[in-house]
């Protein structure tokens, strides 16, 4: 127990040291980076709460008598909220401001955690999960947009992928926290973290894109000065002018009417659908049930914490490698590794059904789950965020991020319902073999459709995609701390 606590302390400490030290040196936006990333940490805690909740509801001593169908709805209903939140961003993301909407999502998150005091009916749980989902659905695309609009080109992948890293850490923290804290007190730590996020967001400036869109040029200059710290007035004026040219025409219809945007929609739709149906996110919701199915109930909490730790370490590797190895390479390695581990888990589940060397098969299955956690965390969530922020043209990026969030939510909802029903009523290996099939499709899509965007400006990415109209648009781009890329 002591050694496990020591290891977890090292991982958490290393994370906070890295984001406070490395981000200060490389990103030059450290304070704002930390403030927004702590909000992402909250979302991870929300995800990590799901398996704990399901375990307690399935407990024989639970005060609520829930059915299998209700359990699957409890696991899936946040996706409905996610869809609503993403749709809200799609409608008003370019009108209300990134920071204001992040505050709104924080209020919803705080409300949902406080509602745990009413945790005595299934309806209350449905409501809590739905409100959490709305908050998450708003946060994910907004944080994605915020990071992509303030990051340096050479480190944009690292900054954007840090969103997935913080989320994984939140999952791990909730795994550990819920293992040692009484059920009635689980809301205390998340609530305190939400309040801290709100206080830190007061220090975060609005992005220059939004300010110039609303012709608030003086505030845009102040925002750029706070973000960049060392720019001369002449450079700030050039950036403001370029931003104005970029976002002057901002219509959601361009997402579907411009041929290049339709091409990006095809790419994003393909990788989101195949990735979600390859099971890269569903493990989080049913991790406890999966370990129990392999006969590991007695060591379930330790194994769950180990799984979360592995996810954190893997996502940290993505942050360090994404701007060196490239998005496409890491994505392919992650997807192929996830497919191999899904095949291992599915095979072990099949052999377990046949009572074939139960102890050995169960141990191999645990290794397969750990491998799945590492490989799927290595690139899939992070790179999907990065590609969404980079492939869409600046004038439709808000709509594109919201679309990606909504589509991902719909797919995750379907997979959550299917997995719960299949696991309880049929055989678990069926779903894992389905995951393998979608993984093969995903590999082909990434290999032939996804372009490499490493260290390329938004304009260069649009050139690669073949959109001459978008390529001629001025875009804010920073190749290093003092140089500005303009046409």
From TrEMBL:
Transmembrane feature ranges: 6-27, 74-93, 100-119, 125-147, 159-181, 187-212, 264-287, 302-322, 329-352, 364-387, 399-422, 428-450
Native source organism of the sequence: Bombus terrestris
InterPro entries: MFS_dom, MFS_sugar_transport-like, MFS_trans_sf, MFS_Trehalose_Transporter, Sugar_transporter_CS
Domain of life: Eukaryota
Name of the molecule in the record: Facilitated trehalose transporter Tret1 isoform X1
Keyword Secreted: no
GO cellular component terms attached to this protein's record: plasma membrane
Lipid bilayer topology: Multi-pass membrane protein
Domain Major facilitator superfamily (MFS) profile: residue ranges: 7-454
Subcellular location: Cell membrane
A Pfam family matched in the record: Sugar_tr
UniProt GO MF annotations: transmembrane transporter activity
Keywords, ordered alphabetically: Cell membrane, Membrane, Sugar transport, Transmembrane, Transmembrane helix, Transport
